[in-house]
What we know:
The protein is mainly α. It has three domains: 1-135, DNA polymerase, domain 1; 145-302, Orthogonal Bundle (hpI Integrase, Chain A), CATH 1.10.443.10; 314-361. The protein has helices spanning 26-39, 44-62, 74-86, 98-106, 108-117, 145-152, 160-175, 179-183, 214-226, 228-231, 251-264, 273-286, 291-298, 303-306, 308-312, 315-324, 338-361; strands at residues 190-191, 196-199, 208-211. α1 (26-39) runs antiparallel to α2, α7 packs across α12 and α12 packs antiparallel against α13. It is globular and about 65 Å long.
Amino acid sequence: MPVYRPSKRPGRAARPILQGDDPRGLATVARAYLEWMRERSFSPATLEARSRYLHYFIRWAAERGVDRPAEVTLPLLERYQRYLFLYRKPKDDRPLTLHSQRSYVAALRPFFAWCARERYVLANPASEVVIPRKIQHLPHDVLTAAEAEAVLAQPDVADPAGVRDRAILEVLYASGIRRLELIHLKLVHLDLERGTLFIEQGKGLKDRVVPLGERAGAWLEKYLREVRPQLAVEPDDGTVFLTGVGTPYHPNALTQLARFYVRASGVPKKGACHLFRHTAATLMLEGGADIRFIQEFLGHAELATTEIYTRVSIGKLQQVHRLTHPGAQLRRRGAGEATEDALLEAMYQSFAGERAEEDDER
Length: 362
């Protein structure tokens, strides 16, 4: 059985905003903007992303002789937008995804709105930039229950690192938490007696409590008892999952770990940490969980975000299709097949009940 051994420290350091001496230059103003965001408790992930997007724009603008916010115009921003559309990555000559293009441009609107409030510009030049619509993609791959078990069985639990990796995979699968939420888990956030995790300031800086389940709790308890004491170094900040050198995981390192075991299982699906989140939500929905419970479980602010899983989980649709479409079965249904007729009637009543509940809530 395999154990994931990282070959090097993955990831890259956050790219700082370009340096500049001009007190009203783009670089200086961008640093003041990021400091303003930090003072208002924007998350580290948001700050890092905003810094990265602003860095790229400032560098691009400087190459065209634009160094101050007051020199940025709507036509210049539209040129930048076209540049992003035509850009090809040096590594594989592929274009930026629509999501990436949208992120690069969308970061400029709040920045220049802040510049307008602080009187660096007379008006926000990005206010009329047309930002591409956000596309709601279905999860590309979702594991079946059997495939999930195959992945979970991969770590060599005779090795301490394998016990830690198994605990990581079990927690991702059982709780459906995000990658960063797992990285930031502290010992004080665990309640193994009740079988829950406390997610402190998850996405959107929102707290929530999620169930862990007995099996994931057992693996987590084994890791905490037998493995973590060997990994922890002083000063110990209480981070639950530690690398081989006693440090918290870098997000890319956790992605590589999860992807390693997915590939090792032979499951013909791609993904890493978020694959377990998609799988947990989809299998719970297929098992009969209410969509509003899954919304709370995943920590979604909007129900519409959770409803994407109703398009992935097609169990009911397949049942109706099999029982009603004349070409869905190898043989035609006979007149005496009362069992399927009763199942179909029960299903119709179930759907009618769901519609009635929705009408009562309106």
